[in-house]
Amino acid sequence: MGGWRDMPAEELEQQYSPSRWSPRMGPEEVIQAHLAATAAGTQRARAGSQTSLHVPYGNGDGEKLDIYLPTDPSGTFPVLVYIHGGYWQCLSKDESGFAAPSLVSQGVGLVAVGYDIAPKGHMDAMVLQVRRSIAFLVERYNRIRGIYLCGHSAGAHLAAMVLSTDWTEYGVMPDIKGAVLVSGVYDLEPILHTYVNDALNMSWEVAQQNSPLLHIAPAAPAAAACKVLVAVAQHDSPEFRRQSREYVLALRAAGWSVSMLDLAGVDHFDIVEKLSEDSYILTQVILNMILRA
Prior knowledge:
Strand order of the largest sheet: 1-2-4-3-5-6-7-8
Largest sheet: 8 strands, mixed
Number of helices: 11
Helix content: 25-40%
Strand content: 15-25%
Shape: globular
Order of helices and strands: HHEEEHEHEHEHHHEHEHH
């Protein structure tokens, strides 16, 4: 078979430990710096934006959204729905608003999605929560003109699972115009054999049914109109980079409009932290995707 199945356990752990691949600082330091940067950026965004915070989209404790409105929110506007990473077991929407200032100043809203992380949350439930958050937005906010998904790491996995949703089960048809999937995991099977699954406690069946790579719908007209961008960092691990390449190829084979962006000079963490900067290439790519639609 080759690939990850032939790796010694220690190597597989390293491949799925993004913090071990940053050239900027050590594993613990880069994680702490990421928590600090995303929290501080979110605090700045909340202080400088018109917001609706902790909006419940369901009854669960974690089922809340933070909404950052455009500077001039008259009429309708597009929104970027941001789904945080943290390997499905840390971070929250309270560290997920850092990209808002660059967006709201250009007439784009940002919605940060909360979901129940492990060990309280399990994979099936997280996927359902994120799907329900999108359905809630469609039902409650008629001023939204087009939804764009953005997920980082575990959040990219959850955003990819949103793309595979059968919306007839939810009674809505979201107008998802684009998705930006940053340094994600699209096949969960390798995760089963690493420390990451200690908290998730996924079975093989759960990993299979929640692997976006295995659930790519043939592109219907709506999907063909949805632009998907898969972004990876130069300093992501080879396994993360492989997963992104394989997901791009699978989407393309199914008729989706997909492209890949390989970002130089960044690692698994600052690839998304820099979305707080107007001039950052990925910020510009996202704005171009939304404003040219």
